[in-house]
């Protein structure tokens, strides 16, 4: 059906990795595109989609940007890829990324770093974001485990949507951390992201046990309907606004814990302006407290490597990868030759994960992090007016909460529809700065994206531009601009349509 025309060549040194000026966004690409869509006519161009290289496709290799999978051809196609092809869209190429999705700047790739000019494209779906920015596709598919769709979207000036966990099938998505992995969409507009999301969410996949069944979707849909009926009632009581009356009564949560000292000035300004824009169209702003946010990043960096260390056990030269001699490490050897092909960050995560799962450390690390994850989920349930459809309402009574949580919740039970905060604390850093950073500095970029991941909530990053000369609100940014600032909208579980709906305001 399609033919490979280009395959990126790996090289070891950063200097020779990518030709100057190139974003190095694609690892492989196809040709022979056709306009096969439902609305196709002779005059409409074919719709092209870039797919992150950890999602398997039947015509192109799937490498996860890893030396170990550099020649891997999947025998089948991912569920989401099939859905895109059924729409008549063309998978035009496989996008570069951080190896196995581990990273925040798309620099940990066997095929060389993705470049957003001199700046970080964000990661790990940086290749998906830059293939859009380069105009190579209409939208791009990525995966988001702890922010990997939203962070590149924020840094590259495009829209990045991570749906609720369990909506889009993970069949054919090479796992990084199964309990967090989510397929997401990057596009130039919310509308395009919405169209792609709907295409991939059009049917339920029975082969992925972590995908919500139709029955659960129906139940969750009922909960959502109750919440939106309530919102409509509130809207009728609001002051009439000629332009956008539907937004009367919408309550926007502003999480006080996200106003951290490290927040770059421009980011704080963008956040403030996005809030006043919402106020101007009739929304009510409500300060909310998510007290466990401060522990979310640490919990994420225990849970994700733990799951990764288990997932990556299959790269043993028998099931995946190639067997080297001598096959096993002896004595002080940490990595046998067979497993030496992983990049440094992947090796670091395997070590971290193996340690936190070891019998001596598991109680103090892995189990504690699981508890923090629950508290993060509970914080969100506490502030959203819509009930979490996955939870028994009896289970999130404030009275049952730990005393520390109750004491921290000084702001009381705020009942909001959406939460708005920045996607990242800073503007995109320069690539050479990133390469000098410690791994922990790198992890800090995810501080605002991991809470929604731990709770499995739908979240979107919308590009926002602030001009230093005026206080005027300017919602559109030129893609790839280093002054783009991602504003994140988070909704209750299964309120994906609500999140996408309110995001349209920013267009
Ligand atoms: N930066 C985070 C990590 O390295 C998130 C990655 C992702 O969402 N795939 O784990």
UniProtKB/TrEMBL annotation:
<protein>
    <recommendedName>
        <fullName>Glutamyl-tRNA(Gln) amidotransferase subunit A, mitochondrial</fullName>
        <ecNumber>6.3.5.7</ecNumber>
    </recommendedName>
</protein>
<keyword id="KW-0067">ATP-binding</keyword>
<dbReference type="GO" id="GO:0030956">
    <property type="term" value="C:glutamyl-tRNA(Gln) amidotransferase complex"/>
</dbReference>
<keyword id="KW-0547">Nucleotide-binding</keyword>
<dbReference type="GO" id="GO:0050567">
    <property type="term" value="F:glutaminyl-tRNA synthase (glutamine-hydrolyzing) activity"/>
</dbReference>
<keyword id="KW-0496">Mitochondrion</keyword>
<feature type="domain" description="Amidase">
    <location>
        <begin position="47"/>
        <end position="500"/>
    </location>
</feature>
<dbReference type="GO" id="GO:0005524">
    <property type="term" value="F:ATP binding"/>
</dbReference>
<keyword id="KW-0436">Ligase</keyword>
<comment type="subunit">
    <text>Subunit of the heterotrimeric GatCAB amidotransferase (AdT) complex, composed of A, B and C subunits.</text>
</comment>
<dbReference type="GO" id="GO:0070681">
    <property type="term" value="P:glutaminyl-tRNAGln biosynthesis via transamidation"/>
</dbReference>
<keyword id="KW-0648">Protein biosynthesis</keyword>
<comment type="similarity">
    <text>Belongs to the amidase family. GatA subfamily.</text>
</comment>
<feature type="compositionally biased region" description="Polar residues">
    <location>
        <begin position="201"/>
        <end position="215"/>
    </location>
</feature>
<dbReference type="GO" id="GO:0005739">
    <property type="term" value="C:mitochondrion"/>
</dbReference>
<feature type="active site" description="Charge relay system">
    <location>
        <position position="124"/>
    </location>
</feature>
<feature type="region of interest" description="Disordered">
    <location>
        <begin position="201"/>
        <end position="238"/>
    </location>
</feature>
<feature type="active site" description="Charge relay system">
    <location>
        <position position="52"/>
    </location>
</feature>
<comment type="function">
    <text>Allows the formation of correctly charged Gln-tRNA(Gln) through the transamidation of misacylated Glu-tRNA(Gln) in the mitochondria. The reaction takes place in the presence of glutamine and ATP through an activated gamma-phospho-Glu-tRNA(Gln).</text>
</comment>
<dbReference type="GO" id="GO:0032543">
    <property type="term" value="P:mitochondrial translation"/>
</dbReference>
<feature type="compositionally biased region" description="Basic and acidic residues">
    <location>
        <begin position="226"/>
        <end position="238"/>
    </location>
</feature>
<feature type="active site" description="Acyl-ester intermediate">
    <location>
        <position position="148"/>
    </location>
</feature>
């Amino acid at each position: 059906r399609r033919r490979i025309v280009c395959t990126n060549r790996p090289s070891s040194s950063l200097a020779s990795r990518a030709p100057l000026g190139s974003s190095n966004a694609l690892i492989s690409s196809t040709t022979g595109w056709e306009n096969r869509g439902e609305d196709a006519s002779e005059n409409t161009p074919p719709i092209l989609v870039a797919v992150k290289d950890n999602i398997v496709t039947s015509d192109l290799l799937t490498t996860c940007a890893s030396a170990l999978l550099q020649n891997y051809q999947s025998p089948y196609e991912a569920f989401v890829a099939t859905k895109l092809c059924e729409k008549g869209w063309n998978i035009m190429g496989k996008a570069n990324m951080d190896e196995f999705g581990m990273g925040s700047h798309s620099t940990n790739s066997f095929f060389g770093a993705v470049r957003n000019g001199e700046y970080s494209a964000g990661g790990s779906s940086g290749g998906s974001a830059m293939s859009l920015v380069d105009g190579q596709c209409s939208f791009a598919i990525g995966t988001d485990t702890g922010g990997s769709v939203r962070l590149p979207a924020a840094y590259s000036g495009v829209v990045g949507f991570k749906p609720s966990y369990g909506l889009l099938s993970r069949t054919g998505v090479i796992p990084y951390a199964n309990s967090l992995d989510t397929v997401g969409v990057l596009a130039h507009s919310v509308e395009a992201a919405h169209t792609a999301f709907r295409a991939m969410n059009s049917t339920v996949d029975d082969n992925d046990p972590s995908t919500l069944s139709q029955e659960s979707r129906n139940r969750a849909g009922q909960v959502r309907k109750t919440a939106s009926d309530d919102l409509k009632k509130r809207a009728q009581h609001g002051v009439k606004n000629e332009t956008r009356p539907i937004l009367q009564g919408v309550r926007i949560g502003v999480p006080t814990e996200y106003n951290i000292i490290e927040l770059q000035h421009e980011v704080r300004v963008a956040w403030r302006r996005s809030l006043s824009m919402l106020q101007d169209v009739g929304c009510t702003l409500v300060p909310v407290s998510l007290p466990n946010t401060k522990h979310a990043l640490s919990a994420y960096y225990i849970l994700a490597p733990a799951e990764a260390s288990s997932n990556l056990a299959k790269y043993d030269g028998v099931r995946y990868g190639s067997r080297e001699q001598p096959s096993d490490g002896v004595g002080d050897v940490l990595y046998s030759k067979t497993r030496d092909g992983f990049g440094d960050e992947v090796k670091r995560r395997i070590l971290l994960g193996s340690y936190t799962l070891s019998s001596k450390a598991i109680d103090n690390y892995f189990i504690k992090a699981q508890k923090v994850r629950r508290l993060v989920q509970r914080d969100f349930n506490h502030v959203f007016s819509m009930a979490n459809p996955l939870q028994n309402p009896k289970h999130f009574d404030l009275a049952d909460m730990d005393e520390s949580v109750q004491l921290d919740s000084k702001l009381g039970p705020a009942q909001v529809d959406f939460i708005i905060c920045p996607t990242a604390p800073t503007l995109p850093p320069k690539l050479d700065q990133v390469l000098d950073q410690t791994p922990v500095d790198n992890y800090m970029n995810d501080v605002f994206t991991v809470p929604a991941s731990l709770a499995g909530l739908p979240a979107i990053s919308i590009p926002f531009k602030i001009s230093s000369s005026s206080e005027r609100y300017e919602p559109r940014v030129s893609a790839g601009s280093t002054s783009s600032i991602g504003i994140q909208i988070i909704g209750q579980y299964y309120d994906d349509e609500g999140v996408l709906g309110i995001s349209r305001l920013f267009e």
